[in-house]
């Protein structure tokens, strides 16, 4: 398959997830707690099941890694990584700041990603060697001349342990933290790719949380790395840093290291 074929397939997956999610938004769904205490709903499961049905029919040789139903081994070296609702808490609160994440990972490296917001009808598509688009129009990050001018975002302080939280706050202190955004999940990375945020910093993410974000952010002119500044791959620890201006990467890594 060509990259164009893969993007077209990813868009079909996003449409299937939208069809499962939209009728259930703001319907006062019950939720359950998973082993890690995070919430899950019938919408999460229905959306992932809909995407898996398409993948099983169209690319049975590829692996599938999904948040809700685990990993299905493939034989092609390619895996589709799915997070049907990244931001289930926002979904349950009736806030359209969640997203469906779809990534294609080849030999552990994300090469294509989609962030789809099914309620607002927004879809960011990033792929290696191609510019990121938002609903077909090129998306670009913005320049940031100094970390002190940067608007920073994270999903929430409760996702950091004390050690990681201290490092995050060391970074936040070097930014324009009066503009700090809390909440947003994957939508923060979409906003960074579209030039509305400068830094997103998080910890304890799993592959399905970040794989789709890397091609979107990097195809828009930004960069993503772990907290050491190294590229993200399937073996990364889950400490994730996104910057709209790659020139600020070293500054951000040094700031993160500043906590004691």
Structure description:
There is one protein chain. With 260 residues, this protein is of the alpha+beta class. The protein folds into two domains: 3-138, Fructose-1,6-Bisphosphatase, subunit A, domain 1 (Fructose-1,6-Bisphosphatase, Chain A, domain 1, 2-Layer Sandwich); 147-256, 3-Layer(aba) Sandwich (D-Maltodextrin-Binding Protein, domain 2). It is 31% helix and 25% strand. It contains eight helices and 15 strands. The chain has helices at residues 3-21, 42-58, 88-92, 162-173, 186-193, 207-210, 213-219, 249-256, and strands at 32-33, 39-40, 63-66, 70-72, 78-86, 99-106, 109-117, 122-127, 130-134, 137-138, 152-154, 181-182, 199-202, 223-225, 240-243. The strands form three sheets. It has an eight-stranded mixed beta sheet with strand order 4-3-5-6-7-8-9-10, with helices on both faces. The protein has a five-stranded mixed beta sheet with strand order 12-11-13-15-14, with helices on one face. Strand 8 (122-127) and strand 9 form a beta hairpin. Helix 1 (3-21) packs antiparallel against helix 2.
């Amino acid at each position: 398959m060509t990259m164009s074929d893969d993007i077209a397939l990813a868009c079909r997956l996003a449409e299937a997830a939208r069809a499962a999610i939209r009728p259930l938004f703001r319907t006062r769904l019950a939720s359950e707690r998973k082993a890690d205490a995070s919430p899950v709903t019938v919408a999460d499961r229905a959306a992932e099941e809909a995407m898996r049905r398409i993948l099983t029919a169209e690319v049975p040789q590829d692996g599938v890694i999904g948040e809700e139903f685990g990993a299905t081994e493939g034989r092609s070296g390619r895996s589709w990584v799915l997070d049907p609702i990244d931001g289930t808490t926002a979904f349950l609160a009736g806030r359209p700041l969640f997203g469906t994440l779809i990534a294609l990972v080849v030999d552990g490296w994300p090469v294509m990603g989609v962030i789809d917001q099914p309620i607002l009808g927004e879809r960011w598509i990033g792929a290696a060697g191609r510019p990121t688009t938002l609903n077909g129009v090129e998306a670009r990050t913005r320049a940031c001349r100094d970390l002190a001018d940067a608007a920073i975002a994270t999903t929430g302080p409760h996702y950091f342990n004390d050690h990681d939280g201290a490092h995050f706050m060391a970074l936040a202190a070097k930014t324009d933290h009066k503009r700090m955004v809390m909440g947003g999940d994957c939508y923060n990375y979409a906003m960074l790719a579209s030039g509305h945020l400068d830094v997103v910093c998080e910890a304890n993410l799993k592959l399905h949380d970040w794989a789709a974000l890397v091609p979107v952010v990097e195809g828009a002119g930004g960069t993503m790395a772990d907290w050491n500044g190294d590229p993200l791959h399937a073996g990364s620890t889950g400490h994730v840093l996104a910057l709209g201006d790659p020139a600020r990467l070293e500054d951000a890594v040094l700031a993160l290291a500043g906590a004691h």
